[in-house]
Each structure stands twice: as C-alpha cells, then as structure tokens.
C-alpha cells in the first residue's frame, strides 16, 4: 500500500509538472528557436560539412598511397614464336611458353601531385564555401528570428484582444443584470432585456472565436520555434513601446546578409571559372611503386623454391607530365559558361542592392504611418471608453436610452479592436525596419 501510495503521488506530481506553463518572452522564444528549429540546425550542419569538403580537396594535394595484390592461375599458358638463332639454332623457329601456371603479386604504390592548378584553386574554393555556409547560417538565423518575432507578436496581440473581450464581457454582464433587475421590478421592457442578452451572447461568441485564434496562433508559434505542440506557454504581459530612436540614418546595404551571401557566391563563381581555366595548365606528378612477385607451377602462397615457386621484387619511380594541347574547344566552352554565370550573379547583386534600399525606405515609411495610426487609435479608444462610461451613468439615471448604451458599447469594442490591430501593424512594421537595417539579432539582446 505504501509503495502504491508513493507511485500515485509521483505520478500526480509528474502530471502537474507536465501541465506547468512555460513563460516565454520574445528573447526566450528566439533563443529556443535557434537551438531547436530544424532550419537553424541544418544550417549549422552545413558549416560542419564544409570542413569535411576542405579536407576532401586538401587530400588531393597529399600523397596517395595504396596497397595492391593479386593471384592469377593460368590453365593454358600462351606460347610465343621466336627465332631459333637466339638459341644457337639458326634457320629454325621455336615455339616457347613464357610464364608459370601460378602468379602472385603484392605491392604498394604512391602518387604525389607536384603541380596541379585545379587542386590549388579547389582549396581556395573549399575555404570560400565554408565562409558561404557561415553567412548562410547567419541568414537562416535572421529568417528564423523574423518568423518567430512576427508570430510572437500575433499571439501577444490576440491575447490582448482576448483580455479586452473578457473586460467587455464583465461590463456587459453587469449591465444585463441591471436591466434584468429593472425588468423584474417593471422598470424596463422585455425587449431591452432581450437586446442585452443578444449583445452578451455575441460577445461570448466573439470571445470563443478569439480563444480559438489564440490556440491556433500559439500552435504556429511553437512550430516555428521547434517546441512540442502539446507544451503550455504563457506570454508575459508587457507594454509595447514606440521607439522613434529606431529612425537612424539609412543603413549600408552592403553589410546586409542577403548582399554578403551573393558576394560570396560571386567569389565562388570566380573560383569556378579559374578551376575551368586550370584545364589549360599542364600537370606534373610523381609516382613510385614497390612489388613482390611469386611464380611457379603451384599456388605461390607460403611456397618456396624447393616447391618450384620463385619470389622476386621489383620497383619503379617516375615523373608524369601531362600537357593539354587540344580538347576540341571543350575547355573554352566551359570557361565561357562559367563567365556567363559570373555575369548573371553580378546582375543579381545590383538588383538585390536596389531591393534592399527599397526595403528600408518602405519599412521606414510604414512604421512612421503605423505610429501615427497607433497614436490615433489609442486616443480613439480612450474617448470611446469615456463616452461609454458617461452614457452608462446616464442610462442608469434614466437620461439615456438602451440604444445609446449599446451603440456606445459597440463603438468602444470597435475602437479597442482597431487599437489592437494598429498595435500588431506597428510591431510587424518594426520588425521589417529592424530587418532592413540588418539588426534582427538585436532582438536577442532585448
């Protein structure tokens, strides 16, 4: 019984812990995504893989050593016809068989490239590829940060909207209860109570729709940060700040990751062109080998001359020079193809530079307009709330009709919804401005 009780308590404790909510700030969400999201992990794996690519290319400049061995059985040995004069039998022809029934060879060979322009160019290209993947990793992280920030703010704004609806629900419920009390005392009409009931039902429906939207948006956020969908998260309440300080001088787009990655691609294509041009260069290599051969009428393994098997060694050292003379204009065609690819990426660089300038200008304009809209909607919400309080007091004193009260409530709800929408627009515009300045990683330090 004691053991059963302990197991029950531990099980209950684990269930309680599993249901605990995780407080998730924007900084926490971004850090979690960079550590757990598949896109970020794969970008880091590409950097790791680039190190192995460098090692692969470097191996071409190092000695290539291999061991070899074979065993051959010749059921029928080929004969060769030779002049008998070599054996003091002029005028005769001798048909002789050269070789043995069994031949076994074992040896080691070495090849060392002394000059190969393509190897040198390949090493430079491999190092540049590593730098490319490092920049690509940075770009991937920025894309992850942007997606997480956008979804995070959408969840936050929906939660704010839900809080406003719950406040409206409480206020409307109180008014409905007052109208019901008046109706019970014969001081209000049934149609007034019905209208309040319908209004309350509409707000409840709106609340349920927002709860559903919050759940869907939270699931999207958890997906974008690589968190289990079943995890419970809590977005801390905090005030959004409008930061005019964000309007600094136009950024240098040549420092943007999108621009840097294209420049690195241009560098890679230049090296690719040089690698093709290397086909015009001669190559020089050193080769050496040492072998041991056994021949006889029996299987050579473990056999000795007494068994009719004879062993001997042989070796060679050589320089191998290859000078390309004519390749049917194939190399020239490859060089021209590489040149076209290089000029194409250069056009992409020019176009991207213009696009990045446009992004900044549009982001700056958008956030300026968002700030104005946000301030106007905040004032509208304040006025609508003040009007609602006044009309509510007047209604309780019999100085305003129920229609006026309902209209004021609807106007207040609409003003609140407009303000939350303007808040979201502002935060999304802020993300675009930060991105256009190449400062998305500053969100981690907030």
What does this structure look like?
With 446 residues, this protein is of the alpha+beta class. The protein has a single domain (23-61, 116-282, 323-445), classed as Outer membrane efflux proteins (OEP) (Up-down Bundle). 62% of the residues lie in helices and 15% in strands. The protein has eight helices and eight strands; from the N terminus they run αβααββββααβαββαα. A four-stranded antiparallel β-sheet has the order 2-5-7-8, with no helix packed on it. Strands 1-6 form a two-stranded parallel ribbon. Helix 2 (26-36) crosses helix 4 (117-184), helix 4 packs antiparallel against helix 8 (402-436) and helix 7 (330-396) runs antiparallel to helix 8. Residues 1-18 have low confidence and may be disordered.
Largest sheet: number of strands, sense, barrel closure: 4 strands, antiparallel
CATH-derived architecture: Up-down Bundle
**How does the helix and strand content classify structurally?**
alpha+beta
Helix content, binned percent: 55-70%
- State the end-to-end CA separation: 53 Å
The overall pLDDT, averaged over residues, is: 87
Measured by DSSP, the beta-strand proportion falls in 5-15%
C-alpha-based Rg, rounded = 41 Å
**H and E string:** HEHHEEEEHHEHEEHH
The strands making up the biggest β-sheet line up spatially as 2-5-7-8
Work out the helix count. 8
The dominant shape is elongated
CATH topology tier name:
Outer membrane efflux proteins (OEP)
Instruction: Name the poorly predicted regions.
Output: 1-18
Name the features.
446 residues; alpha+beta; Outer membrane efflux proteins (OEP); four-stranded antiparallel beta sheet; two-stranded parallel sheet; 8 helices; 62% helix; elongated
């Amino acid at each position: 019984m004691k053991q059963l009780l302990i197991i029950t308590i531990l099980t209950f404790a684990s269930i309680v812990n599993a249901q605990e909510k995780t407080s998730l700030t924007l900084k926490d969400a971004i850090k979690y995504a960079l550590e757990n999201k598949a896109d970020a992990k794969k970008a880091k794996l590409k950097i790791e893989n680039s190190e192995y690519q460098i090692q692969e290319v470097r191996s071409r400049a190092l000695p290539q050593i291999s061991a070899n061995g074979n065993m051959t059985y010749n059921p029928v040995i080929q004969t060769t016809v030779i002049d008998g004069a070599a054996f003091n039998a002029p005028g005769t022809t001798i048909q002789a068989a050269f070789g043995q029934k069994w031949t076994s060879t074992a040896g080691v060979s070495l090849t060392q490239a002394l000059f190969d322009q393509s190897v040198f160019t390949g090493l430079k290209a491999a190092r540049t590829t590593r730098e490319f993947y490092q920049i690509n990793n940075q770009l991937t992280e920025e894309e992850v940060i942007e997606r997480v920030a956008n979804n995070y703010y959408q969840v936050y704004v929906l939660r704010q909207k839900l809080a406003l609806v719950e406040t409206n629900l409480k206020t409307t419920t109180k008014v409905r209860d007052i109208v019901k009390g008046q109706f019970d005392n014969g001081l209000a009409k049934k149609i007034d109570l019905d209208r309040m009931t319908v209004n309350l039902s509409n707000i409840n429906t709106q609340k349920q729709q927002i709860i559903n939207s919050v759940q869907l948006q939270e699931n999207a956020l958890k997906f974008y940060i690589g968190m289990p969908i079943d995890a419970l998260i809590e977005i801390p309440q905090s005030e959004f700040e409008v930061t005019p300080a964000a309007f600094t001088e136009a950024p240098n787009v040549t420092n943007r990751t999108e621009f840097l990655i294209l420049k690195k691609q241009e560098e890679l294509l230049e090296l690719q062109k040089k690698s093709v041009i290397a086909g015009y260069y001669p190559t020089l290599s050193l080769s050496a080998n040492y072998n041991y051969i056994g021949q006889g009428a029996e299987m050579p393994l473990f056999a000795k001359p007494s068994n009719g098997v004879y062993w001997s060694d042989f070796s060679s050292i050589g320089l191998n020079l290859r000078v390309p003379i004519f390749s049917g204009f194939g190399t020239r065609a490859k060089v021209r193809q590489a040149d076209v690819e290089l000029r194409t990426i250069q056009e992409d660089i020019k176009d991207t530079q213009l696009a990045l300038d446009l992004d900044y200008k549009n982001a700056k304009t958008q956030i300026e307009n968002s700030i104005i809209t946000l301030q106007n909607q905040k004032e509208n919400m304040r006025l609508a709330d003040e009007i609602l309080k006044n009309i509510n007091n007047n209604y309780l004193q019999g100085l305003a009709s129920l229609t006026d009260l309902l209209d004021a409530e609807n106007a207040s709800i609409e003003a609140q919804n407009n303000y939350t929408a303007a808040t979201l627009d502002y935060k999304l515009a802020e993300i675009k401005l930060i991105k256009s300045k190449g400062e998305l990683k500053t969100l981690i330090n907030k």
